[in-house]
């Protein structure tokens, strides 16, 4: 008798049933295992810390204090240790604290916050350093609300100006010079004022308002076609398709087991519409809309390019469009100033049993000696070893590898482990630093100021100097002012400089309760590293006594007062009681940077694809966060923190890529992203 033919159909059905049950089982197990619970009474504990928050962001590290903190935890290590206390690590730690994780933050500076930190000077002034405004951005608000347990308030800011001003086709109408519009029939909120070659361009809340302003100022039909093409790009970029791809792009960054090659291929395959913009420079994006970047229209459209951290011929269009959309519906500011963000997030970390220290410089990462490099802790200030199962660095991807890994590779890790480490720490060298700024901080006593001299402007001014030979765009402007690519810059302050001016005290709705009769102004201008590098090796205390450095600072102060402060705030000089200068060397001190770069690695089209700019790393137990991992800015750094928290909480796996779960949802809360 002939044997029965094999029943292929049955085999196939059996295999399919097996695969389906296996996947269902895995997905079900994943869903159940990822349910999180919040510590009971977390919110009450957060509220109790509110009177102490200013001192809690400045607890100095000592071995004795650290051991006391451990004792409170019955000698157990912290769940997660963070290198750096910027917004990226604070956001990551606060998100994990909401699931009951006990986090330890180690910050080298004298307070938490990184770019969001503030400083006080005698006489009753508190100055913001690296956060001048936030967007009226619902996703960011939801995230901040989650991270702060709902304790951070954002107030809308901006100067109301008559609609007639931004709708006027000529610039004959005066801009509201520091005074909010009174009696005008209809007003809108101006958050940024762009001044090019003496002409004012108000950026007011609302996409259609921006379009109206641009069309009124550039009335030629040919320009209207270009403006509409630009708004088509904005609409496309902010549309559902691209925004879903943005989420997918960053979700794929989280999936830890993907090889770099496969991650890159999947991102290119699934996120093409988003990557189209990420791969262009800001200037290319303008050309795509037929707008010449050297024309006045091109310069107005890119008027906020300083927020993108790089020249528009280098920055990715992703960040330029992202910045514009972030502020498109207007702008906000934290109640209590930019320092309120680190204070409120730190409260959540402490309330969940965590701890944070300043003056705690991490000098190396600790590894166990195995063929798979495994991070087991950090060394603080060169002497104290701190151990944990999970270590997160928020000091920049390149710097983590260079400062905390590479220099210790030989003595700490076996030869087998060296190769993958070398590969990862060398990669970020392909990048370029973002811009460095020089700061003038001005404190005013306006106690006896008559109302006729008040200046209640609540917006930022971006001022671009006169162009004697005609407009030729920001790239050539920068090359003229700072030299080619920042090198060979001319004598300091020998040429007119672009600058940014803002008053933090006017934006903080409770500043006058804390500091009655006081007003602050901050002026920023770019600073070529060449101008200050001769003093880089002198310790800070000695530098402050160095006569050449002091001469440079005095020259800077005189220039910025004469050419920037007086121009923007003509009625206020007689009320000035405090002036101080911060240089890129100051930024190196308070942000631990190399050349005063204010936004980490520059966000070039190449940056986004560098395989190491991800929350996970080739080193076991070591995670990355902060602006390098996502995008720059408060929103970018905090999103990076949230992404990393998701990767740590176990959402960086293929099951999650299918189910699209995340940390907030696993707590039973409404979704954020
Ligand atoms: C002048 C300026 C203006 C800005 N304006 C705005 C704005 O208006 N709106 C906006 O959204 N964004 C703005 N930004 C950007 C925003 O502040 C940053 O993008 C954001 O704060 C970056 O957060 P981060 O945590 O990634 O990095 P950082 O803030 O740089 O934090 C890194 C932290 O790590 C610490 N650190 C470094 N090395 C070590 C070490 N070895 N051990 C321990 N600690 C270490 C540093 O001291 C720092 O505190 C501005 C930035 C600057 C500088």
UniProtKB/TrEMBL annotation:
Entry-linked SUPFAM superfamilies: FAD/NAD(P)-binding domain (SSF51905)
Superkingdom per UniProt: Eukaryota
Keyword Ribonucleoprotein (UniProt): no
Keywords: FAD, Flavoprotein, Membrane, NAD, NADP, Signal, Transmembrane, Transmembrane helix
UniProt-listed Pfam families: NAD_binding_8
Transmembrane segment boundaries: 12-28, 78-97
Assigned protein family: Belongs to the carotenoid/retinoid oxidoreductase family. CrtISO subfamily.
Name recorded for this polypeptide: Prolycopene isomerase
Native organism taxonomy: Eukaryota, Sar, Stramenopiles, Ochrophyta, Bolidophyceae
């Amino acid at each position: 008798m002939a044997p029965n033919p094999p029943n292929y159909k049955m085999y196939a059905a059996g295999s399919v049933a097996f695969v389906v049950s296996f996947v269902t089982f895995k997905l079900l197990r994943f869903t159940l295992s990822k349910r999180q619970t919040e510590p009971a009474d977390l919110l009450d504990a957060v509220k109790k810390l509110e009177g102490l928050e200013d001192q809690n962001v400045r607890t100095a590290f000592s071995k004795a204090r650290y051991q006391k903190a451990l004792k409170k935890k019955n000698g157990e290590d912290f769940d997660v240790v963070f290198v750096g206390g910027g917004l990226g690590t604070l956001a990551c730690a606060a998100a994990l604290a909401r699931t009951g994780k006990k986090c330890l933050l180690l910050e080298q500076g004298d307070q938490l916050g990184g770019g969001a930190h503030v400083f006080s000077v005698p006489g009753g002034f508190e100055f913001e350093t690296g956060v001048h405004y936030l967007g009226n951005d619902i996703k960011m608000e939801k995230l901040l609300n989650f991270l702060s347990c709902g304790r951070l308030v954002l107030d809308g800011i901006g100067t109301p100006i008559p609609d007639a001003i931004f709708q006027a086709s000529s610039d004959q109408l005066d801009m509201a010079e520091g005074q909010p519009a009174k009696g005008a029939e209809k007003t809108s909120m101006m958050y940024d004022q762009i001044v090019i070659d003496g002409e004012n361009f108000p950026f007011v809340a609302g996409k259609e308002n921006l379009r109206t302003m641009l069309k009124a100022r550039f009335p030629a039909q040919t320009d209207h076609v270009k403006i509409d093409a630009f708004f088509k790009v904005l609409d496309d970029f902010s549309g559902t398709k691209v925004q879903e791809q943005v989420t997918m792009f960053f979700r794929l960054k989280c999936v830890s087991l993907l090889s770099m090659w496969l991650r890159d291929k999947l991102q290119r395959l699934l996120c093409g519409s988003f990557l189209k913009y990420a791969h262009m420079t800001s200037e290319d994006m303008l050309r795509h809309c037929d707008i010449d970047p050297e024309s006045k229209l091109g310069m107005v459209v890119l008027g906020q390019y300083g927020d993108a951290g790089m020249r528009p011929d280098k920055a990715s269009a992703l960040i330029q469009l992202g910045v514009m959309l972030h502020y498109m519906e207007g702008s906000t500011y934290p109640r209590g100033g930019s320092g309120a963000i680190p204070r409120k997030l730190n409260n959540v970390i402490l309330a969940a049993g965590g701890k944070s220290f300043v003056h705690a410089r991490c000098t190396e990462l600790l590894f166990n000696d195995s063929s798979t490099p495994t991070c087991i802790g950090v060394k603080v200030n060169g002497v104290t070893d701190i151990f944990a199962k999970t270590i997160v660095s928020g000091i920049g991807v390149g710097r983590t590898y260079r400062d905390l890994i590479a220099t210790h590779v030989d003595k700490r890790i076996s030869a087998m482990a060296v190769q993958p480490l070398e590969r990862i720490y060398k990669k970020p060298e392909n990048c370029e630093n973002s811009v460095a700024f020089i700061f003038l901080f001005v404190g005013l006593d306006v106690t006896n100021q008559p109302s006729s001299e008040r200046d209640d402007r609540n917006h930022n001014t971006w001022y671009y100097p006169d162009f004697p030979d005609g407009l030729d765009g920001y790239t050539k402007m920068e090359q003229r002012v700072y030299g080619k690519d920042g090198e060979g810059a001319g004598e300091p302050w020998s040429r007119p400089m672009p600058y940014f001016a803002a008053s933090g005290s006017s934006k903080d709705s409770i500043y006058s309760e804390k500091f009655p009769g006081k007003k602050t102004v901050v002026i920023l201008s770019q600073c070529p590293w060449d101008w200050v590098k001769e003093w880089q090796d002198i310790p800070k205390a000695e530098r402050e006594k160095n006569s050449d450095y002091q001469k440079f600072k005095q020259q800077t102060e005189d220039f910025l007062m004469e050419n920037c402060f007086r121009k923007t705030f003509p009625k206020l000089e007689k009320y000035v009681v405090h002036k101080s200068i911060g240089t890129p060397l100051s930024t190196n001190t308070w942000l631990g940077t190399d050349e005063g770069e204010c936004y980490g690695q520059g966000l070039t089209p190449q940056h986004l694809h560098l395989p190491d700019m991800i929350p996970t790393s080739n080193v076991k137990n070591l995670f990355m966060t902060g602006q390098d991992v996502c995008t720059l800015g408060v929103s970018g750094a905090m999103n990076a923190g949230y992404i990393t928290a998701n990767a740590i909480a176990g959402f960086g796996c293929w099951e999650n890529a299918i189910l699209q779960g995340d940390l907030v949802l696993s707590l039973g809360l409404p979704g954020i992203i």
